[in-house]
Amino acid sequence: MSNNTLTIVVPCFNEEEVLPETTKELGQILTDLMSKGKISEASKILFVNDGSKDKTWEIISDYCTKFNYVAGIKFSRNYGHQNALIAGMTTANDYSDMVITIDADLQDDVNAIPEMVDKYLEGYDVVYGVRNSRETDTVFKRKTALAYYSIMGKLGVKLVPNSADYRLLSKRATSSLLQYKEHNLFLRGMVPLVGYRSTKVYYARKERYAGESKYPLKKMMNFAFDGITSFSVAPIHLIMNLGILIVLVSLIMMIYVLVRKGMGDVVTGWSSLMVSIWFVGGVQLISISMIGEYVGKVFSEVKQRPRYVIEEDKFTPKAREEHKK
Ligand code: UDP
Ligand code: MG
C-alpha cells in the first residue's frame, strides 16, 4: 500500500442540504494534499450514513460513482453520531495510515486538515482540533459546555477543552482506540486515554452551513449524562458518602435522644423511632450504593451488543481494488 493514505470520516444524519458543499470543500482539500504529495492518491472521504430519512444516501452513492475519492457506508438504521464515527474508523483503518473525523455541516474549519496532516508527518499520533472561539454558539450552549468541562474535570475525566470530534488519529492510535469495546461511547473522553504523542491545531468554529442541528437539547443532555456515567462512578460514591453522613448524624441523634429521655420529658416511643429512622435510612443508602457499584460494573461489561450494523459498504471494495495495484 502507498504511504500516508488519509481517510476523512464524515458521519451524516439527514444532511442532504450540506453534502454537496461538504464534498466540494473536502474534495478540494484532499486533491490539494495529493498534488503536494503529502498524502497518497488512495486517500478518501468516507461518508457514514447514519440511517438518514432524506436523500443523503442517494447523494453519497451518486458521488461514489462520480468521484474516485468518495466512498460511503450505510447503516441499517440510526445508531447515533458516536457509533457512526466508530464504524467509519473501523472500516477505514484497514486501508488508511491516518483517519480524520469531522462533522458533515462544515462547522469545523476544513482548512485545519492540512495542518493536522503536517503534524502527523512530524510524527504525532493524535492531533486534536480545538476551537479558539465559540462565538457562533448560543450563550446557553457556551455556558453549559463550560460548566460541563469543569464538572467532568472534578470527576476525574480528562478532556481536551473545546475539542469535539474533529481530530486526526494515526493508524496505531485508531487501532488502540478500537480496542475499547464499551458501548456507552464518549469518544472525546476515550481518545486521551489511548495515549501516544499528541498535539492541538486551533481553528474558528463557524455556523452550520445549512440545515439544522441534529443534536436537539434532549439528545445533548443524554450525551452529557452518558459521558459522566460511562466514565465515572463518582455519583455512586456521592450516594455512599451521603449514607455515611446520615449514619453519623443518627449517632448524634441517638445521644441527643438519650439525653432528652434521661431528662424524662419525651413521649413514649419517640426515642426509638427517631433513632431507627435516621440510622436505618443511612444504612439503606450505603447498602444500595454498594449494590449500585456492582450493578454499574456489570452494566458496562455485559451488553455485548454490536455497536452498529452496516447495510451497504462502498468503501472496502474500492479501497481493496486500489490496494492491489
Ligand atoms: N449525526 C449523526 N447521527 C445522529 C446525529 C448527528 O451521524 O444521530 C451527525 C451529523 O450529521 C453531523 C454530526 O453528527 O455530521 C454533528 O451533528 P450536528 O452538527 O447536528 O451537531 P451540533 O454541531 O449541532 O452539536
Ligand atoms: Mg454541527
Automatic annotation (TrEMBL):
<dbReference type="GO" id="GO:0016757">
    <property type="term" value="F:glycosyltransferase activity"/>
</dbReference>
<feature type="domain" description="Glycosyltransferase 2-like">
    <location>
        <begin position="7"/>
        <end position="173"/>
    </location>
</feature>
<dbReference type="InterPro" id="IPR050256">
    <property type="entry name" value="Glycosyltransferase_2"/>
</dbReference>
<keyword id="KW-1133">Transmembrane helix</keyword>
<dbReference type="GO" id="GO:0005886">
    <property type="term" value="C:plasma membrane"/>
</dbReference>
<keyword id="KW-0328">Glycosyltransferase</keyword>
<dbReference type="InterPro" id="IPR001173">
    <property type="entry name" value="Glyco_trans_2-like"/>
</dbReference>
<protein>
    <submittedName>
        <fullName>Glycosyltransferase</fullName>
    </submittedName>
</protein>
<feature type="transmembrane region" description="Helical">
    <location>
        <begin position="238"/>
        <end position="259"/>
    </location>
</feature>
<dbReference type="InterPro" id="IPR029044">
    <property type="entry name" value="Nucleotide-diphossugar_trans"/>
</dbReference>
<feature type="transmembrane region" description="Helical">
    <location>
        <begin position="271"/>
        <end position="291"/>
    </location>
</feature>
<dbReference type="Pfam" id="PF00535">
    <property type="entry name" value="Glycos_transf_2"/>
</dbReference>
<keyword id="KW-0808">Transferase</keyword>
<keyword id="KW-0812">Transmembrane</keyword>
<keyword id="KW-0472">Membrane</keyword>
